[in-house]
Amino acid sequence: MRIAVIGTGYVGLVAGACLADSGNEVVCVDADARKVRALADGRVPIFEPGLEELVRKNGAAGRLSFTSDVAAAAEAEVVFLAVGTPEGEDGSADLAHVLEAAEGLARVREGYTLVAVKSTVPVGTGERIRRVMLQVNPGLDLDVASNPEFMKEGAAVADFQKPDRVVIGTLSERARALLGELYAPFVRTEKPILFMDPRSAELTKYAANAMLATRISFMNDIALLCERTGADVDLVRKGMGADARIGYSFLFPGVGYGGSCFPKDVKALIATGREGGLDLEILKAVERTNLRQKRALVQKAVRHFGALEGLLAAVWGLAFKPRTDDMREAPAIEVMEGLLGKGAQVRCHDPVAEPAARRWFHDRVEYARSIYDCVEGADALFVVTEWNQFRKPDLRKVKRLMRHPVIFDGRNVFDPARMRELGFAYYAIGRP
Ligand code: UDX
């Protein structure tokens, strides 16, 4: 099939590359000409395992191309909209880019046009897109389907190629047949394509993310309760997860959730509720707990040291989670700002997110090349992202290098008993 994807952020680029890889002819359109040039040269501006190879391979095979001219979407059988929906002033999703892209598209199309909306957009946006496009070009035979994307950063290619489910929101038979055919290669092994009405599809995406965020905040509350009662959250987590109705995934307490989706989508869903006269109290509590959790490590440090003035804090992990260089809403920002605000010096290390951190912190913090350079002379170590590289360091060496062997582990990567044996003052999340 001939496919166009408008927007080459995470979602658009991964979708474009994966759809090309399954044999379609894909053109990706992005207003940012510099980005388009880089992508056409096979350079991917984000760190995402497997993505660059896929872009290069399919580019070389002539199935994947990049342009800033939306006219390239004129002939596509399906046009995906995958532009960003940043947080607006009142917390609701800002649809300016989506509506602008839809207008531009309407100008270059004739006859039947199928738009599949991959951007995360509030309920009813599909209908707004439809109105805007028909205003610009009343002659269009237009279907606007909702096709939310559930991929995770760091595993985006694998998630797109082997999704748990594909959600398609449309009442049009023609759109249903086209999208069903396009996704057929990805759902071979009993994973469903769920067809539904557009509004339900739009809400599904927010509800899924909000539920996952709720699980995390719930577990962060339970972890705090463990700390107050002397229980071990790791055992509680296993005991809970063994119940098939609960399951093991997404039960890890930590330093709070970050990233480009959960914080923004929880806010946007609260805003949708507000617009409908509904106070979504659970989600407001989820946000409050998350902010408290992002501050938990620094609070533990203040309790341990009394004051942080003049101390050297080492921070392992900047990205909001492993296998990405994304620092959007990363807990590391709150942790490091908290440390700086209390007068500590900060030296940090991340396998890939240092450039992103430099854009935020500039020279307010030091950047270390390795985990060991990072801890040299440090008074405390903060583990903020659970990169595999941080799980099995030479802990004796770490202890030798540090001025004070104190660790605040925000991801529970170490074993408390072993840390005690090695002589560290060790603070984890929800563990004695
Ligand atoms: C999320 C959704 O998982 C994905 O389906 C959606 O398309 C986009 O949003 P992503 O933001 O890439 O994906 O990251 P995810 O792996 O879900 O993690 C989100 C945050 O939750 C991270 O900060 C992570 O550290 C945190 N988290 C996750 C926990 O604190 N505990 C857990 O048990 C799981």
Element layout with pairings:
Elements: E1 2-6, H1 10-21, E2 25-29, H2 33-40, H3 51-60, E3 64-67, E4 78-81, H4 96-108, E5 112-117, H5 125-136, E6 141-146, H6 156-161, E7 166-169, H7 173-183, E8 193-196, H8 198-229, H9 233-241, H10 262-275, H11 281-294, H12 296-305, E9 312-316, H13 331-341, E10 345-349, H14 354-361, E11 366-367, H15 371-375, E12 380-383, H16 395-401, E13 406-409, H17 416-422, E14 425-427
Parallel strand pairs: 1-2, 1-4, 2-3, 4-5, 5-6, 7-8, 9-10, 9-12, 10-11, 12-13, 13-14
Helix pairs in contact: 1-3, 4-5, 8-10, 8-11, 10-11
The structure holds uridine-5'-diphosphate-xylopyranose.
Entry summary:
This protein has helices spanning 10-21, 33-40, 51-60, 96-108, 125-136, 156-161, 173-183, 198-229, 233-241, 262-275, 281-294, 296-305, 331-341, 354-361, 371-375, 395-401, 416-422, and strands at residues 2-6, 25-29, 64-67, 78-81, 112-117, 141-146, 166-169, 193-196, 312-316, 345-349, 366-367, 380-383, 406-409, 425-427.
Description:
This protein is of the alpha/beta class and 432 residues long. The protein has 3 domains: 2-196, NAD(P)-binding Rossmann-like Domain (Rossmann fold, 3-Layer(aba) Sandwich); 206-291, Orthogonal Bundle (N-(1-d-carboxylethyl)-l-norvaline Dehydrogenase, domain 2), CATH 1.10.1040; 295-427, Rossmann fold (3-Layer(aba) Sandwich), CATH 3.40.50. It has 17 helices and 14 strands. The chain has a 6-stranded parallel β-sheet, sandwiched between helices. Strands 11-10-9-12-13-14 form a 6-stranded parallel β-sheet, with helices on both faces. A two-stranded parallel ribbon has the order 7-8. Helix 1 (10-21) crosses helix 3, helix 8 (198-229) packs across helix 11 and helix 10 (262-275) runs antiparallel to helix 11. It is globular and about 75 Å long. The termini are far apart. The relative contact order is 0.09. The model has no long low-confidence stretch (mean pLDDT 97). Uridine-5'-diphosphate-xylopyranose (UDX) is lined by residues 149-153, 209, 212, 216, 250-252, 254, 257-259, 261-262, 320-321. Uridine-5'-diphosphate-xylopyranose binds next to helix 8.
